[in-house]
Amino acid sequence: MQNQQDTNSGIHMDPANVDISHVQRESEAFLRAAQGIPEEVLQREQPSIEESIKSNLNQRSSFNLGPKYLEALTQLDSINNTKAISIQLPMSLRKVEITSITGAEEQALKSVSVSPDSFLKKVNELLYNHTNFEDGSKPTFNEFLGEVYPPDKATMLWGLLNASYVVLPELERECTSCGQKYIIQSVPNDLVHEDTFKNVWDQSVSPSEYTIRQETFGGLIKFDFGIPTEKDRLLITSMLNPESLKNNISKEGSILSTLDVLTFFTKRIIVGDPGEETILTDLFQDIIPFLRNLSPKVADGIRSGIDLTVFDAYMPKFYTEKPCAHCGDMQKVEVDIELVYFRKSLAI
Ligand SMILES: [Zn+2]
């Protein structure tokens, strides 16, 4: 990217270094539609359902369980092999059934994690192949990508984890009460609480038509922000080179930089006084260079003038609530499925 001369101050600065971290914080939860399945999740280290139940049966042998239970056990095991999770997607409001992934697919995912965007594509294919719409319709892969909003993707990925895995990888966290590190062991359902899927789409227009307008510089520059789909995300990701994506991960802990975040939500940029407004651009291809080449001063003005938190309302909130192993204090730990269970693969 070209650096931009700040015409007002004459200071030569790289707009990529402009701090718009609050924009990032406000919208990153929304952005984290997951990227893939990490190695650690892929390793089925957990006991099989059969082993767990057998062990349970042994412990409860005084109940004199007979062959009937072994029969039931066989059935359970077979159900487990084709487990399906039914959920409603918070944005499209469609009911879907997510089926478990196979061992071969796990292997394919492991071998494809060469670059972030190819990994993204593979995970999207996986989601597509394992999602059945309960009304019987099946969109094409392209249509599917154009309909998947971040909250829906996060929900589907949770469904995929739930359908495919019994136990999630351990997480190490520092207790906010005693300061010691402890291990959190969870099953997928531990991440879901009463308020996890609290909000579903309730606007009068569809998510694709919904935009909010925000003004900066006293109304001279207006942004129409909308809800990005997976298709938008792929487009942006493919326009950034793999090195900058990796750089974003190491520098900002996220696949997209703060400027990319802004780009992701921007549907239209309008300039000019009221009554004499001109649409500067409404194409991603133009929005990316426009935002990347802003002078620091303008970037800063935009940063302070916009608020993307409105989009977070529909994002499912996954978290665990478990006591610290040392002091027993109940700890609520927010779990971003993408970051916690998927990021590792991206950082390769
Ligand atoms: Zn503690």
Question: Your description of this structure?
Answer:
The protein is built from 14 helices and 13 strands. By secondary structure, it is α+β, with helices and mostly antiparallel strands. The protein has two domains: 161 residues, no CATH class; 115 residues, no CATH class. The strands form five sheets. A four-stranded antiparallel β-sheet has the order 8-9-10-11. Strands 3-4-5 form a three-stranded antiparallel β-sheet. A two-stranded antiparallel ribbon has the order 1-2. A hairpin with a 6-residue loop joins strand 3 and strand 4. Helix 1 crosses helix 11 and helix 11 packs antiparallel against helix 12. The site of zinc ion has 8 residues, from loops.
Write the layout of secondary structure elements.
Elements (H helix, E strand, L loop, with lengths): L3 E2 L6 E2 L7 H11 L7 H4 L6 H11 L7 H15 L2 E5 L6 E5 L3 H10 L3 H14 L1 E3 L7 H7 L2 H15 L6 E4 L6 E4 L26 E6 L4 E6 L3 H10 L2 H11 L5 H8 E6 L6 E4 L2 H9 L3 H10 L13 E5 L6 E5 L2 H10 L2
Antiparallel strand pairs: 1-2, 3-4, 4-5, 6-7, 8-9, 9-10, 10-11, 12-13
Bound molecules: zinc ion.
